[in-house]
Every structure is written in structure tokens, then in C-alpha cells.
Specification:
The complex is a heterotrimer of chains A (341), B (262) and C (223).
Chain A: E1 2-12, E2 15-24, E3 28-32, H1 39-47, E4 54-59, E5 62-66, E6 71-72, E7 80-83, H2 95-99, H3 107-116, H4 132-145, E8 150-154, H5 162-173, E9 179-183, H6 187-193, E10 196-201, E11 204-209, H7 211-216, H8 221-226, E12 230-243, E13 248-263, E14 269-271, E15 280-293, E16 296-302, E17 307-311, H9 313-319, E18 326-332, E19 337-340
Parallel strand pairs in A: 3-9, 3-10, 7-8, 8-9
Antiparallel strand pairs in A: 1-2, 1-4, 4-5, 5-6, 10-11, 12-13, 13-19, 14-18, 15-16, 15-18, 16-17
Helix pairs in contact in A: 3-4, 4-5
Chain B: H1 5-28, H2 34-39, H3 41-74, H4 80-92, H5 95-106, H6 113-120, H7 128-153, H8 157-164, H9 169-198, H10 201-206, H11 217-227, H12 229-247
Helix pairs in contact in B: 3-7, 3-9, 4-7, 7-9, 8-9, 9-12, 11-12
Chain C: E1 4-5, E2 14-20, H1 27-38, E3 41-47, H2 49-57, E4 64-67, H3 70-75, E5 81-95, E6 115-118, H4 123-128, E7 137-141, H5 144-153, E8 158-162, H6 163-168, E9 172-174, E10 184-191, H7 197-204, H8 206-214
Helix pairs in contact in C: 1-8
Classes of the chains: A alpha+beta (341), B mainly alpha (262), C alpha/beta (223).
Chain lengths: 341, 262, 223
């Protein structure tokens, strides 16, 4: 059953939100997007703090917001748990009173949550006594105490200590009866906790799929940047495209008009001297920076085509890569994916 | 931060401006006979009446003023600006004009007063209740300003959060809005009470002047000035002490805005 | 509270008169008549008698002090001659039409009546208390004007005011024919300089008395 079914429009300041989104019971969806994309506004639509201007929203199969039919269910009558970015704990109530604030909560559940999230020692203290991580746990406990059918988390792991992250993650694991929508900017968190990723850009959903799908087949520049891919703006005219610097890039597939060229860093081959062989893009570049990335090294290159390559640490030694060194770079035309801009 | 000299100098002048008349008053006090004076009925009676009238007026102001402040701050009603200006009018209106207006509205032949008289036999002028009505009229704006100010400067995020947790509006008001509003309500009430205590023009014009029933401290002081200067000074001292007793404990809370608490 | 009436330029022939507020209507006429007779212009300052006395004690330069409160005259240091020149009767007044049917002094103690009087601290109030009847007042106003206002608005059923005020106020009338009743308020003129003596004489003279009578004042001395 669909816990969230949204197909509607809303307006938040200058932003026009036009979203189709479905989340099933038991599903965890990560919502990613650049700043200003409308992620928080989308959450506000679901909580009832931002009414739709068109379309409809159903929560747990119940019509909740349909301006065309004059339907609008108030926030306090929706079964939603909301943990906002700034938590909004009630400063004049103790931790226990915060957690148990919802009229739907029961004392037993409250105590259980306080215990599960290791808040027992803080239960009778005011929120000011809590650290960032503790406050986040209180906010999550408070939302869960109401036993909501939909749980909305806005940047839950930002500036959170490891213990808190684990405690919260463990608790959220057992959410079979609810749908969870998690806003994050961290693709790793999205990939590890979510069943599905939805990307929101400029008020529209640009991608909805499994984490692997989004990583390997990014459809927009933002999606690509999430996966650590190079994106280059250019204007395509058939089999070639010209960048802003005037460099001509040979494409694997024909295209026209403004485009984004996506090149995985591993596809950038580095050589001592001019390589020969099949038609591809070859140029002389300068190393500006070396970035260790776990068991690889990312080489930031400047030149006619600014790009980032990824090589093994051994290759760095062999090729003598140091900042300021010259190196030949090559990218096969077939490794370049072309996205319309 | 070290304050620049000119600022401190002007501040000192401002303090002197207020302090000097008080010092002048204290200097003229008949201290030797003060004990006997303060025991006189002509002083204790207006004192008790003033405390009664201003105390009741302060409570009425809180009861009427809190929903009003909340509505002005949170509800989108048409003509909000005009309503707000109307509510603040008694602050600007000369009190005697206010009292006269009250007579035209609630006096025996007043707009509403005539019906109160005819149907219920209820009249307000010449009664203690009338003194309370006049006091509430002038004091209400002070309370509304303080509370509305606090509601406006603070945001309603916490109220929204409470709503998403399932609390319906009255519960949100009771458990979130009002407890956080308490400091502003306290400060507003103190201001309103102080204004009610010092009220003269509207009281004497509307309620009249009768010892024990409508003669509050300011009225008694004014009349004492006409006949018995020592008594007038003693009454002034009483008013000074009573006012300070309320204002000093307020410490730094004048028109408090909500301190951002996260 | 204070106003100035000036009938000409400054000079040696110029008297400054401090007068109680209740003489506001009649004094201009008296000043005019005096100027015609003696050529001296009069500058008047009106106010509550207590305040004027306080100013005189602080050194205000007035030639004449007209007040209903003789005790004040005695307190003001430099008065060296005085004369009573008029009296004003207190009457029981009612709103136009006498809605409560007040017909005698005894009515003033009726509990259902709303009666207003002047407070004792002001001259007309002090005199009211000498009327020899128990008055269940609902309010003791701080000025005669306030009492009149209550009557004119219909807020009070009866009040005690000056006869001169009743004559001047449209919405107020005497409760019954109260000619020659007393107690009264007596006005006394106190001279503070020798130059002022002619004015005192004038006040006691028939022409001045006629003007005073025209405004509703009674003879110089009660009787």
C-alpha cells in the first residue's frame, strides 16, 4: 500500500514545486538535491505546513490535500512524524516531556524509546543540557513516540557523533509499518540507508531509482556530481562539442545544442608521451593537485580541458605526478556520456 | 564594550532628568510627622482602594488582552492595522477625553449604558466598578503591546512542530504558546498595573470622586494639594513606594522579545 | 488655567489682577467699566485660588487678589487693604426638566438619588458642607465645572453649584426657586499696592455692583 502518494504543485517563495512521488509502507526513500531545490518545502507539503496549489496528496490511502476538491487535512490530524533540521525541541519541557508530547504516545512507548536511544540519564533535564547528538536522538524519539505512518527526517546525520548515528540508524531499521522519507545531501548515507533515491532539482523530480542506478546512470549534472563524476559544459554540433574555452571534444554519440559531458575519472588515461591509437581526445595537461581518495588518488588536471583523473598510487609514482608536472591525458570518445543541458 | 563618552554623558543627563523631580519630592517630605500621617484614614483608604482597583484592572487586562494580542499577532483578519490602531488609541488619547468618551458610551444616558441602566439597573459611573472600567481602558494597550511584541518577534515554529505531533490548536496554545509567553505576560501586566495605578483623568471624569468608593490615590493626592500639603506629600510618598515595589523586581524585563532558544 | 486679558498697552496705568476662576465671566466687564472710569487698564490672571496664592507667596507681582477664600488672603503677605465686594449663592441644581423630581433640601439625602457636590478641598465644597443638611453624595468633584457637567449630561440627578453657574449653563436649572438662600461664598478683594486702592473702591461702588448682579452675583455681604 502506498503510504505517500503525491502528484501536485505548491509554491514556496520563488520556487514552484511540481512533484510526483510515491513511497510504499516499509520503504525508505532518500531525497537528494542541491540547495534551494525544494526538499524542505516538499516535507512541509507532507506535514501540512505548506498547502498544495494544485493536484492531490494522499497519505495512507486517505485524501489529505486536494485543493480542487476543497480537501485539506490539518497537520495535527495527519499521522506524520517530522524531525526537522533544527530539531525544534520544546525548550521549556524536559526530555521526557518532549518525547511524550504527542497525545498519541503512551508512557510505555516513551520509556522504551528513551531507553533505546540511551537518553535515560537526560530524561528529566531540559533540552539545553543536551549535546547536538543527544538532541537529535530526542527529536527522533519524540517523532517515533507518536507511532506515525510516515516519518520525515531532514538532514538527520548532519554534525552527529558516530554513536548517535548508530543508535538512530538501529531504531529506524525496524520500521516495517511506516514509510520513511529522508532528506540528505550525503550520497553515501543515501546509498547505505535507502531503498530508493529521489533527486529533486529546482522543484522537479529528476530521478527516481535505486542507489546503484543513480550512481551509474546519472541523468543530470547534479546526479553525476553526486557520484563524483566530471561534468563539462559544451555546445554540441554533431560528432563534436566545443567547450567554453574553445576546446573541441570528440563525442561517441552525435548530439546538438548545449550539453553536459559526463566523464568518469577512471576513464581519463594518463601517459608520459603522446599516445597513439583509435580516435579519442588527447591533450597535454598540467597537474594542479593530488587528492588521496581511499585506495585511489584523484589527479586534478588543468589545461585545455580541466578534468579530474583517478589512478592508483603506484601510477602516481611511475608517471612522476607532482603538482606542476606536465602529463598527457586521453579520453575515449565512447567513454563520454552526453546529457542535454 | 566601552561606551563612548558623549553617549554616557547624555545618558547621565537623562537619568538626572527623571531623578531630580523625585529627589525634589523626597527633600520636601515632612519626615518627622510621616509616621502619624501614614496612619491617617485619609491615606490608608485611598491606598487600599487603589490597590484593589488597579489589581482587578490588571487581571481584567490579562484576560481580555491575551486573546486580543494573540489574534492580532497570529490571525489574518481584514483591517488588522485599523484594529491595532484602535486598541492603542487610549495610550495617546488624553485621559480626560477617554473618561468623557466612556461616559458617552457607558454613562447613564450613554450608547450602551442606557440599556444597562434600563434593563439591569446597572450603572457604572460613581461606582468602584466604574473606576476599574476606566483603569482597564487606559491600561489595556500597554499589555497588548508587550504581549503582541513577544508573539511577533518569536516565530511560530514550535507551534507548528507541536501540531505535527498531533496536538490540536487549544492544546498547542496551552502547552507551548502560553508557557513561553509567560515572561512577556508578566512584564505586560506589570506595565498595565502601573498605568492603572497612576490613572487620574479618566477615573475622575467617568467614575467620579468619593472616598472609599472611587477616590484612588492619584485623586486623593490632587485634592490634598489643594488643602493639606503635608498630606499630599505623604500620599505622593506612598505612591512612589508602591510603584517602585512593583517596578524594581522587574529588573531587565521591559518589553521582552523572546530570547532565541535552540 | 490662567488666562490674560489686556485692554491696552503697558504703562504706569496698568494693574495686574489675580482672580479666582469663578470670576472669569464677570471680571472682563468690570475691567472694561473701570477703564472707562479711571483710564487704567487691567491685566487679569485667572486660576485656582490656592495656586494663585502660592504664586503670590513666591513673589508674583500682582496688585490685586480676588478670591472667595478669605483665609488665603490672610496668608498672602503683602495685603494691606481688603474689601468684600460680592457673594455667590450656592443652589441645588438639577438637569433640565428635573427628571428625579427634586423639590427640597431633604431630597438630597434620598438614597436612590445620584447627587454630586464639590469636594471640600475647593472653596465651593467647603461652603457646601456648611449647608446644614446631610448630603449622600455619590461623587465629590474637583471643580464646579465638573459638577455642572455631570448635571448637564444627566449622569447626576442633583448637585450643589453656584447660582451664577446655573444661569450660564443651558442644560441645568435650579431645583426650585431658591432666591436668597445661603450659605454663600463671599468674594474679597485684597490690595497689595497703593495703586490698587482705586480698583477696590470701584468694586464696592454701585456701577460695579450692578454688573455683578447682572451676572447673578448677590450683594456684597450675605444677609
Amino acid at each position: 500500500m502506498s503510504a505517500i502518494h503525491l502528484a501536485g504543485t505548491a509554491r514556496a517563495g520563488d520556487l514552484e514545486l511540481d512533484v510526483e512521488l510515491s513511497v510504499a509502507t516499509g520503504e525508505t526513500v532518500a531525497l537528494l538535491g542541491p540547495n534551494g531545490a525544494g526538499k524542505t518545502s516538499l516535507l512541509r507539503v507532507l506535514t501540512g505546513l505548506l498547502p498544495l496549489t494544485g493536484g492531490h496528496l494522499d497519505l495512507s490511502g486517505r485524501a489529505t490535500d486536494a485543493p480542487g476538491q476543497g480537501v485539506f487535512v490539518e497537520s495535527h490530524r495527519r499521522s506524520i512524524g517530522w524531525v526537522p533540521q533544527d530539531r525544534l525541541l520544546f525548550p521549556h519541557l524536559t526530555v521526557r516531556q518532549n518525547v511524550g508530547f504527542s497525545p498519541h504516545s503512551t508512557p510505555e512507548l516513551v520509556e522504551h524509546l528513551i531507553g533505546s536511544l540511551d537518553l535515560t540519564s537526560l530524561a528529566d533535564k531540559l533540552p539545553t543540557a543536551c549535546s547536538g547528538g543527544q538532541a537529535q536522538r530526542v527529536a527522533v524519539a519524540r517523532a517515533l513516540a507518536a507511532e506515525p505512518q510516515v516519518l520525515l527526517l531532514d538532514e538527520p546525520s548532519t554534525a552527529l557523533d558516530i554513536d548517535s548515528q548508530h543508535l538512530i540508524a538501529d531504531l529506524l531499521m525496524g520500521g516495517d509499518e511506516r514509510a520513511t522519507l529522508l532528506v540528505t545531501h550525503d550520497p553515501v548515507e543515501a546509498a547505505t540507508t535507502a531503498d530508493r533515491i529521489v533527486i529533486l532539482e529546482n522543484g522537479h523530480v529528476t530521478h527516481s531509482g535505486s542507489p546503484v542506478e543513480v550512481r551509474t546512470r546519472p541523468r543530470t549534472r547534479y546526479a553525476a556530481s553526486l557520484a563524483g563524476l566530471n561534468t563539462i559544459a559544451a555546445v554540441a554540433t554533431g560528432r563534436t562539442a566545443t567547450t567554453a574555452d574553445g576546446t573541441i571534444v570528440v563525442l561517441g554519440e552525435p548530439a546538438t545544442g548545449p550539453v553536459h559531458l559526463v566523464v568518469p575519472p577512471v576513464a581519463v588515461a594518463l601517459h608520459h608521451s603522446v599516445p597513439d591509437g583509435s580516435p579519442r581526445n588527447v591533450w597535454e595537461a598540467t597537474v594542479t593537485e593530488l587528492q588521496p581518495a581511499f585506495d585511489r588518488v584523484r589527479v586534478v588536471l588543468d589545461g585545455p580541458l580541466p578534468i579530474v583523473a583517478e589512478v592508483t598510487p603506484a601510477a602516481v609514482d611511475v608517471l612522476g605526478l607532482v603538482p606542476g608536472a606536465g602529463i598527457w591525458a586521453a579520453v575515449k570518445a565512447t567513454e563520454i556520456t552526453v546529457h542535454p543541458a | 564594550m566601552r561606551a563612548p563618552r558623549p553617549v554616557l554623558a547624555v545618558a547621565a543627563i537623562a537619568i538626572a532628568y527623571v531623578a531630580l523631580p523625585v529627589l525634589g519630592l523626597l527633600q520636601r517630605m515632612p519626615w518627622s510627622s510621616m509616621g502619624d500621617l501614614l496612619a491617617r484614614e485619609s491615606i490608608t483608604r485611598p491606598l487600599l482602594l487603589s490597590l484593589l482597583v488597579s489589581g482587578i484592572a490588571a487581571l481584567v487586562v490579562v484576560i481580555l488582552g491575551t486573546p486580543l494580542a494573540w489574534t492580532l499577532a497570529r490571525v489574518e483578519i481584514p483591517g488588522r492595522r485599523i484594529i491595532r490602531a484602535l486598541v492603542l488609541l487610549p495610550m495617546v488619547l488624553p485621559p480626560v477625553v477617554g473618561g468623557t468618551a466612556l461616559l458617552f458610551a457607558l454613562g447613564r444616558r450613554g450608547l450602551v449604558g442606557q440599556w444597562l441602566d434600563r434593563w439591569f439597573g446597572l450603572t457604572l459611573p460613581f461606582t468602584t466598578a466604574g473606576a476599574v472600567v476606566a483603569a482597564v481602558f487606559v491600561a489595556l494597550p500597554f499589555y497588548v503591546i508587550a504581549v503582541e511584541g513577544a508573539l511577533e518577534s518569536g516565530s511560530d515554529e514550535l507551534e507548528q512542530m507541536a501540531g505535527t505531533l498531533g496536538a490540536e490548536p487549544m492544546r498547542v496554545l496551552r502547552r507551548i504558546t502560553l508557557p513561553r509567553l509567560l515572561p512577556a505576560m508578566g512584564a505586560g501586566m506589570a506595565l498595565a498595573w502601573a498605568r492603572a495605578l497612576g490613572e487620574f483623568g479618566a477615573t475622575i471624569t467617568f467614575a467620579g470622586n468619593l472616598p472609599g468608593r472611587t477616590q484612588t490615590l492619584p485623586l486623593a493626592t490632587f485634592l490634598a494639594l489643594e488643602s493639606d500639603t503635608e498630606e499630599a506629600l505623604a500620599l505622593s510618598l506612598v505612591m512612589l513606594i508602591v510603584s517602585l515595589a512593583v517596578l524594581i523586581p522587574m529588573r531587565d524585563r521591559w518589553l521582552p522579545s523572546r530570547r532565541p532558544e535552540r | 488655567m490662567a488666562s490674560t486679558l489686556s485692554c491696552g498697552g503697558p504703562g504706569d496705568d496698568d494693574l495686574t489682577v489675580f482672580a479666582a476662576s469663578s470670576l472669569t465671566d464677570v471680571l472682563p466687564d468690570l475691567a472694561e467699566a473701570f477703564q472707562e472710569q479711571a483710564g487704567t487698564t487691567i491685566t487679569t490672571v485667572f486660576g485656582g485660588s490656592n495656586h494663585l496664592a502660592a504664586q503670590l507667596n513666591d513673589g508674583a507681582a500682582a496688585d490685586v487678589f480676588l478670591t472667595a477664600d478669605v483665609r488665603l488672603l490672610e496668608q498672602v503677605a503683602t495685603v494691606n487693604r481688603s474689601v468684600s465686594f460680592a457673594s455667590n449663592r450656592l443652589v441645588v441644581a438639577v438637569p433640565e426638566g428635573n427628571p428625579a423630581g427634586v423639590s427640597s433640601l431633604a431630597d438630597l439625602s434620598r438614597p436612590d438619588l445620584r447627587v454630586v457636590v464639590c469636594d471640600e478641598a475647593v472653596p465651593c465644597g467647603a461652603t457646601t458642607s456648611e449647608m446644614g443638611v446631610t448630603i449622600e453624595a455619590d461623587s465629590r468633584e474637583i471643580s464646579v465645572r465638573a459638577v455642572l457637567s455631570r448635571l448637564a449630561m444627566g449622569e447626576a440627578d442633583a448637585g450643589v453649584v453656584y447660582a451664577t453657574d446655573v444661569a450660564a449653563e443651558p442644560g441645568v436649572e435650579p431645583a426650585w426657586n431658591q432666591l436668597e438662600s445661603c450659605p454663600c461664598v463671599t468674594y474679597t478683594a485684597g490690595a497689595r499696592t497703593y495703586r490698587a486702592l482705586p480698583f477696590l473702591t470701584f468694586l464696592a461702588s454701585p456701577p460695579a455692583q450692578e454688573i455683578l448682579a447682572g451676572h447673578g452675583f448677590s450683594t456684597r455681604t450675605p444677609g
